[in-house]
Write a structure and sequence with these properties.
The protein contains 10 helices and 36 strands. The chain is of the alpha/beta class and 619 residues long. The longest helix is centred in the C-terminal third of the chain and has 54 residues. The radius of gyration is 55 Å and the shape is elongated. The N terminus is likely disordered.
Length: 619
């Protein structure tokens, strides 16, 4: 049976109304003790029976049937809500006025065309919102009628197609959030103030903040559910479930999740710097970790008192002053470490790596740069057009570099100038038209040789004193009285002669007379013995200096496994103390190696072969 054929009662008595709908003289009421679903069922029965609600308060009607809380407890007394003036019939002759309703997905459209005249030329009454609500309900559109727009178009009498009903989309809730609660973790990018009151515009005030133990860092804000929506049929459209967050997923080392009366917090368990990794995990450590690079935009120049690890690049002209520095990106600026190790996992291009008390390691390419370790080793994979110095330098492949150290080990060197006390090169040769220069640093032995000469001279002096005193002793021994006394004393001591009583007195007089002479002889003999001891000491010191000379000279060695092209090896004499040689500014190192100002001695000059040379000083 079509809508037009549905029988419509002439009146609606109180007895045949659906349960939950009450009509009184004051109007039509809904029983609010019923759940919204029961009220919707009652309204559906009413509209399907060919009746409508006249004088309907549609916003209140919609709010009551769909947005009221459910389920509801039974009220203590009668709870009624007036939603319309009366219940009226909806005859088929009126329903045909709403045939042009079109359902298009999430909307319902209706063409308000001009109403045709009847056979007598009388225009029919205009359309009505209450009728439209009842007709749409019967056609399945039970929610979302735009009552204000419909009333306006009816009042205007215009012929126009409009959207009369829309789906109510669900409103998403609020996802769980982590909120910063500590001012200590916020950076301060204001210019750094210097001790004299001026501002350093190239440095930030506090780029890497520190926090104290027990400081609250983050607070968990719980998720809030969204609001449901409704389709045109009045079915609930649930909102998407909000995402919760877990503080444990961002708790790194040095932090812990703690529960307080006002919520859950991420708390620091030690003093240190705040570090956030690529997964968003927060840790507190004595080491600073940065992922944004060092530039005028991100950090400015840095002067730090802690270990530093950077995953980004260090841009040109940026200064990074600290200790124990690790860089994962390319470095174009300047690094200055006061200790620890400088580790570059990428390249050093046109920059500087300087370590006062520690090693330097570059895993990538060092190009057009300065690499210096005053008290440490330098390890490079590949170096091109660099100045390199250190206690010990180890390079896989060096090209057109100036290298000076106490010890240098290079697998392949091309067109370099290398100076060191101990040099070991696997393969050496020129690069294009640049000759390969090798300078074994040989010590200036003049100081040791002077020590040897001085000791020998003093030994000779003591020997001369010894001979002089011995000659004086011999001269005294030749005096007649001394010779007679010494002869008699020897015979008496050996028992060859026994003095008579008459001989004892003359002998005692003789002994008394030469006693001073004998005392002088004893003194001279002491001086002879002392001269012998001092002479032996000077000779021992001279021999010790000779051994030191040989050992010092033998530490200067140059080994070239393969000479492949023009290569020149010249011994360069340097003063004692090798640190004074490689502890120089880059310009001085380059001038020293390329101009060879110190005196040099030829050792090897050829374009092929090999060399194993140890310095042997002249005898």
């Amino acid at each position: 049976m079509s809508d037009d054929d549905t029988p419509v009662p002439d009146a609606a008595g109180a007895g045949d109304l659906p349960h939950g709908i009450i009509q009184r003289k004051e109007g039509v009421f809904l029983d609010m003790s019923l759940a919204p679903a029961e009220l919707r069922s009652a309204v559906d029965q009413l509209f399907q029976s060919g009746r409508l609600l006249e004088g309907l308060d549609y916003p209140l009607f919609l709010l009551t049937l769909f947005h009221a809380p459910a389920p509801r407890g039974a009220p203590r007394s009668e709870a009624l809500l007036r939603i319309a003036a009366r219940i009226a019939a909806f005859p088929a002759s009126r329903r045909i006025l709403y045939k042009n309703i079109k359902l298009r997905g999430d909307t319902a459209e209706f063409y308000f065309e001009p109403l045709p005249a009847d056979a007598d030329g009388v225009l029919p009454a205009r359309r009505d919102l209450d009728e439209l609500v009842a007709d749409l309900w019967r056609k399945g559109v039970r929610y979302g009628i735009d009552s204000a727009t419909v009333r306006a178009i009816i009042e205007s009498g215009k012929a126009e197609r409009i959207t009369v009903a829309r789906v109510l989309a669900p409103q998403p809730g609020r996802d769980g959030q982590l909120v910063e609660v500590s001012q200590g973790i916020h950076r301060d990018d204001a210019p750094r103030e210097l001790a004299d009151g001026r501002f350093d515009l190239l440095s930030f005030k506090n780029r890497f903040p520190q926090v104290k133990k027990h400081a609250r860092l983050l607070r968990k804000m719980p998720a809030a559910p969204g609001l449901p929506g409704y389709d045109l049929a009045g079915n609930i459209l649930p909102p998407p479930a909000p995402q919760e967050v877990d503080l444990a997923t961002v708790a790194g080392s040095g932090t812990a999740v703690e529960h307080f009366s006002d919520g859950d917090y991420l708390v620091a368990t030690q003093d240190g710097y705040v570090n956030v990794d690529e997964r968003g995990k927060i840790s507190i450590d004595n080491k600073i970790v940065s992922r944004e690079g060092v530039s005028s935009r991100t950090t400015g120049n840095l002067k730090l008192r802690a270990a530093y690890e950077e995953y980004g690049e260090v841009q040109e002209q940026r200064m990074l002053d600290g200790s124990d520095i690790t860089i994962h990106g390319d470095v174009y600026g300047h690094l200055h470490s006061h200790g620890g190790t400088i580790v570059l996992h990428s390249n050093l291009v046109g920059g500087t790596a300087f370590n006062e008390h520690g090693n330097i390691q570059i895993d990538g390419v060092a190009s057009g740069s300065v690499v210096q370790a005053l008290q440490g080793e330098v390890h490079l994979q590949r170096a091109e057009s660099c100045v390199v110095s250190g206690t010990r330098v180890v390079i896989d492949h060096a090209s057109n570099c100036d290298i000076i150290a106490d010890e240098v080990v290079i697998e392949l060197a091309e067109g370099c100038a290398v100076a060191a006390r101990h040099i070991g090169i696997g393969s050496a040769g020129p690069r294009k038209h640049v000759e390969m220069l090798v300078y074994p640093l040989v010590p200036d032995l003049s100081v040791i040789e002077q020590r040897i000469a001085d000791n020998l001279a003093r030994a000779a002096q003591y020997e001369q004193v010894q001979r002089k005193r011995q000659q004086e002793i011999d001269d005294i021994a030749q005096l007649p009285d001394v010779r007679n006394y010494l002869t008699l004393a020897g015979q008496l001591r050996r028992g060859e002669l026994v003095l008579q009583a008459a001989q004892q007195a003359p002998y005692d007089k003789l002994a008394a007379r030469i006693a001073p002479v004998l005392k002088e002889v004893a003194r001279l003999r002491v001086e002879v013995k002392q001269s012998e001891i001092l002479q032996a000491q000077m000779l021992a010191l001279a021999e010790q200096a000779r051994q030191e000379r040989l050992a010092t000279a033998g530490q200067s060695r140059c080994v070239l496994g393969l000479v492949d092209g023009d290569t020149s090896v010249r011994a360069m004499t340097v003063p004692p103390g090798f640190a004074k040689v490689y502890d120089r500014p880059p310009k001085e190192i380059r001038a020293l190696l390329r101009s060879a100002v110190p005196p040099t001695q030829p050792v090897f000059a050829d374009s092929s072969g090999a060399l194993d040379w140890t310095y042997a000083p002249p005898v």
